[in-house]
User: Fold this.
Amino acid sequence: MTAATSVEQAEQGGRASEPEAIGLRAPAFQRILERLGSLWTFGVLVVIVVAFGIAAPSLYTKAAWLSTSEYAVEYLILAAGQTFVIVTAEIDLSDGAILGFSALAGSLLMNNLLNHHVDGGLTTFLGIVVMLASGTGVGLLNGLLTVKLRIPSFIVTLGMMIALGYGATNLLTNGNEISNLPNQVLAIGTDSVLGGWLPIPVLVALGVALVLGLVLGRTRFGLRTYAIGSNRLAARRAGVAVNRHIVWCFGLSGFLAGVAGLMVTANLSTASTIAGQNDELYAIAAVVIGGASLFGGRGNIFGTVIGTAVIAVLTTGLVLANVSAFWQYVAIGAVVIVAVAVDQVRTRTAD
Amino acid sequence: MAVTRDIVVSKDGPSGAGGPSSAGGTPPVVEVRGITKRFGSVLALRGADLALYPGEILGLVGDNGAGKSTLVNIISGALAPNGGEIFVGGEKVHIGSPLDARRYGIETVYQDLALAPDLSVWANVFLGRERIVRGPMRLFGWLDRRAMASEAREQLDRTRIRIDSVDALVGKLSGGQRQAVAVGRSAAWGSRVLLLDEPTAALGVEQQERVGELVRSIAAQGLPVLLISHNLPQVHELCSRVAVMFQGRVIATLKPSESGIDEIVSWITGAALVARKPE
Assistant:
């Protein structure tokens, strides 16, 4: 029967069989690269931990662990939310700005309540509510603007970053920082568990990563997040409420920026107008080093944790090794590029 | 020519845009009557009628712009018609969205397959109707991955699709396997009818054959298939009836057992219409 196939179809057949031939070319090589998948960044982490340990043995001290892990807190919390956004093939450039804005908004309220002699516990509670709610609110607004106005999220969140991070935050307090905070907030930044090895902010960041890792990897919400980033039209046809889901992902990113804002405020005992500035760059870098694709559909929280750890260890390690702080940026920037380059090779072979 | 023709077909010679079909025997599973659709000033459908009977493979052919895709999109809920009626199982229904269509048991395999390459086979099969575990974790939408994997396996086995592992990412499958997953997924869910929009357009000859077998086995299990295709030899081989669209109408329904490819072509081009119209 197929002898009667027309010329047109024969052509289509010829075209279609091409990619398969490529796919068959190097299965062994391909499989090795696949296995390496997100693990190779873990290898990079091990290598730099060992290398810096040799260059500066003080890396293996409690003090170094505490400074590294506390440094990583805000990036890890932001990057965890950023992972959800990036997996849907969107991006959130404003999470650093949301961090600064929500932290200052909550702190402003707490400052005013303390000045009116409101109880510290109640003040803390209300301050935290404002931080989380304002972060979530801005995040949801990002999502709504993106899907309703059909503006790329890159543009929406770029605008939000500028307006919020450099404008609204300073307008709140005329550019002043706020240090008049209840002791309960400061305790979050100073208390720790496990004999001082695990500060509360680090515990919170790890808890956030664990919960979101499970949400992304094991729940319906996570599965649909991947589906939207992988093939938006397919997700829509399968009955997934794509726009609403994207709005929730931005809301999540904003909520976590609020959480990170609380941690930064507690840690520094101060809400500053420059808090969170440029944090989004490291958050995105961490997600990308962790193996996520900016085209969506790929990435996971474990990778993001590794990516954040790579950035944090590079930063601390270079300081301990007495290398100029400016080299941190060079190193981190290089790692981002190398990570994506390796990823490109990986996907090109896989397809 | 081993084509399954042991199917009850209740009507239809090349009789032109006929009226509703209830002429004896089995009632149609899905029927559309007098569907019209306008895009701006263009009238894409001018009263299209089509009836699909249990267990049959109905081919839908026609030149580009004849209205095939528009008609299929209306049945699958992707487009809203301007006029006409749709009946599912004899009852008049309103299909306002793809989800509505699915609720009526109408499943569509789109030309571009609509698969997520970064998801596993089972995740693609269950996307949009995920199985959630029982118990407290249900609140969080915790996936019952094991159940979905084994059910997907069963569903694909039933349609005789050979996929090594349902855990494999769809992006790693060959074109033919992807097609098989897309068809198998819809066949598994489609309780009433399966719409296939150009299922073999992107496939090699051998894979076209395999998809053909798949379609045949689906129809043999009683699920009627509406096959939209440009591949006339394949349509002629697979289908028990072939509906030809011309300028927004179904102008003829032919039986491949009685009509050759040449005759189908003459209806597609409208030549037969001219030749047969003495009025």
